[in-house]
Fold each of these.
Amino acid sequence: MRYQIDKKIAFIGSGNMGEALIKGITGAGVFKNKDITVTDIRRERLEHIRRLYKVNITADNRDVVKKADIIILSVKPQIIAKVVKEVKDLVDRKKLIITIAAGVTINSIQDMLGKKARIVRVMPNTPAIVREGVSAIASGNAASEVDIKMAEKIFNAVGRTVIVEESMMDAVTGLSGSGPAYVFLIIESLTDAGVNMGLPRDVSKLLSIQTILGSAKLALDTGEHPGKLKDMVTSPGGTTIAGLHALEDGGLRAALINAVEAAAKRSEELGKKG
Ligand SMILES: NC(=O)c1ccc[n+]([C@@H]2O[C@H](COP(=O)([O-])OP(=O)(O)OC[C@H]3O[C@@H](n4cnc5c(N)ncnc54)[C@H](OP(=O)(O)O)[C@@H]3O)[C@@H](O)[C@H]2O)c1
């Protein structure tokens, strides 16, 4: 296997998102497994990660930062300050820090590490587990083009990436960060809808999931405006327009706009608290 990046990478915190990224980058062969080290305060998490992904593990955050070129901060937002303070004397211009913590600004980390610290902030989402995630990448003033390219390479291994201004991160969190939960709610609702119309639950669930997956793939592959793709299914006086009428009547469009707005505002509030 050809490895894409010849550097040492560390993950501080290997919970849900840390594991998703480790699974993706080991699966894609972005780094050599011997160059990946993972820390956590939970011994059983570390054993689980080593067993599944054959990477190095340690409970020592300082040791791993000392040796790594790239450090991914993948602990909960409220733990970030504690971890950064623990390792700050070991971070110099040679090391790239990538934070995935929701609501934690690049500035707040630079306040602890110094204005010259190379920091990139990324907002991934959970479909990264199956390498179909989407991650938004924003960079601090001390990070270079090469640093952004590095983040793109890492996060492209678990899906797709977009580059945004950091000021857009709350909107990204409300849309794609929280978005998988909206889609799961829609899948659950469509499944219930099929059951309501007499379909067996397993049949209804598969029809719902594959309809969403297939529609998403069609939109992505063709690049067509979703309105045009919708019109392709909607014949005059037919079944689909009757269903669409009911959805508009129920306010689906406004409900989704409100959901993203509410989640983005909550992200902003949590960021100010932290
Ligand atoms: N999950 C998502 O959908 C998602 C999406 C985008 C971004 N994120 C971001 O990703 C980050 C991680 O989220 P998550 O859902 O993966 O959280 P998580 O499952 O709680 O994972 C964090 C892991 O770090 C461990 N930990 C706590 N303190 C530590 C320390 N001092 N040193 C090393 N490890 C430590 C935790 O152990 P304990 O459980 O014992 O504390 C836990 O195993 C968060 O900042 C979140 O905002 C998550």
Note: The chain has twelve helices and eight strands.
Amino acid sequence: MPYGYHGKILQVNLTDGTIEVETPDEAFYRFYMGGSALGMHYVLKRTPPKADPMGPENTLVLALSVLTGAPVSGQSRMTAVAKSPLTGAIGDSQCGGFWPAEMKFAGYDAIVIQGKADKPVYLWIKDGEAELRDASHLWGKITGEVEATLKQELGDDKIEVLQCGPAGEKGVRFAAIISMSNRANGRTGMGAVMGSKNLKAVVVRGKNRPAVADKKGLNALAKWGSANFADSDVAGMGKYGTAEVLMGQQKSGGLPTRNWSSGVFENAEAISGETMYDTILRGADEGRQDRDGRDTCYACTVRCKRVVQIDEGPYTADHIYGGPEYETLATFGSYCGVSDLAAVAHANQLCNQYGMDTVSCGATIAWAFNCFDEGLITTEDTGGLDLSYGNAASMVKLTEMIGKRESFGDLLAEGSARAAERIGRGTEDLVVAVKKQELPAHMPQVKRGLGLIYAVNPFGADHQSCEHDGSYEGGFTHYQDRLSQLGLTEQQERYSLTDEKVRFALLTEHLYSCLDSVNMCQFVFGPAWHLYGPDQLAAAVQAITGWDVTLDELMRVGERRLNMLRAFNAREGFTREDDKLPKKFTRALTGGRTDGFLYPLDRLETAKDTYYALAGWDVATGAPTREKLAELGLDWVAEQLSN
Ligand code: SF4
């Protein structure tokens, strides 16, 4: 028996209803490790070029890693990969929670899903046995109802349910896959892929925990994390969740406001993590924040997840749908000029009920507000809705209309870029997206290396694909030991975009890319402020699998995954022309510390030259070269590119 994983990958063909088990060898697992890299092995082999992302030819992979389910913080994660209905490029998205660990205990390392069922089904996996069951009675139901129904029908409260909500069924292009009714594979529309296959849910339960090679070593690492947590940089996240960063963003002039017109929001405090803690966190009214309002993923000591409860007022929130993250507070809050925390919490709940990415949903609504503000759309377009900035009622209403694909919400369900193409009239100039994916709430105007990664990232703008600039600008001295493990040894100038900063961006991108393949949470392991550093990531993989892996080998896994994503896009016809930042960035920010700030778009093109050259890619096209793919052991991928 291998350590850390089962050596079993479930192959599900929904068209003919067959289920088979593939048993790759140890070399396969060590080469890919899991998550995104493992998923891309199947997507590249099984999804034909130019496939319809919402057609039966698209292959959806739900992949764990060789670490999932082991008793250490940060490991209970699953990566979903498939061609994205939002971007038309590769889609890639991670979730945490308890579903990933439970799936491992149910006996499998990944599920490869092909075809399309002729009627709604769900996949039930228990202790190694898998079967497809009828889900007609679940179709159209919101996530909380589906979860409650399945628990009752299967007679087990401890099952874990992963599902596409009604938004995925209706093909909302940024539909998410939801588990526990409050955790999301949020980005790139993986819920729409699941819905297009008539696969309503994947339900798991099991007792088969893979053995750990070095229990003592892993135990020591877990104990080190618990002992050092209170003094670590993630301790605040334990108290306030990811919303801890909101006021810091505001102070630095980096809180996207009114669809990225400004980096400061005059009512930021009203939607901050501190206000959430004091007012709507579950138990706040009884001073019980630490008991009920903090949730976690399986075996994680950080406990960064929020749970809110609002029983009265125009906007309620039920704790089963969790609570808003920083990105959600920003996209439904400052992006839209909305300072009503209860309204934002309610919009978060709607996204978890219908199954939608809160980033793309809130950002698309903010784009519509911006168009309304500039007179490019009117109440004639919106069906009478007043989309003035700050109108919380319209923001909430639109969220629900998108989830149901009703009237103006039906258009916004296409995402801001497609909606703008449809409307025209200059609304295209206000879209804040890369490769049609809306930007998360970290501003390239103040994080210029991150801006480069937003532009070149294969699945559109993403804030969790490299380290943010602050860690190697002001924070360098503090994080020097960890950054030097990646060969990054010199402090970088604030707001610069030098060749050396490009190297920082690429190397930290390789590490983050590895984290999405070993499926480790990026709040727990990373190159700077994280609970554990890069060397401890290698120690965790060694202890769990028994392999003599080094950090270099792990960085190689990250580089391999990045090249596979990029090769998929090249196959689809994407080039360096698609690696660009939004036109709205030619407008200077207004107000606060970043008044007058612009992103250096002219410098971006030379930074891309440096980045592609360092990555070993063709500088003219941005595609991985045959030599680079061969060096990474991906000759078969190179063959696909030359066909
Ligand atoms: S840090 Fe937060 S998101 Fe990450 S594993 Fe822990 S509880 Fe989950």
Note: The pocket of iron/sulfur cluster is lined by residues 73-74, 96, 296-297, 300, 302-305, 521, 523-524 (CB under 6 Å).
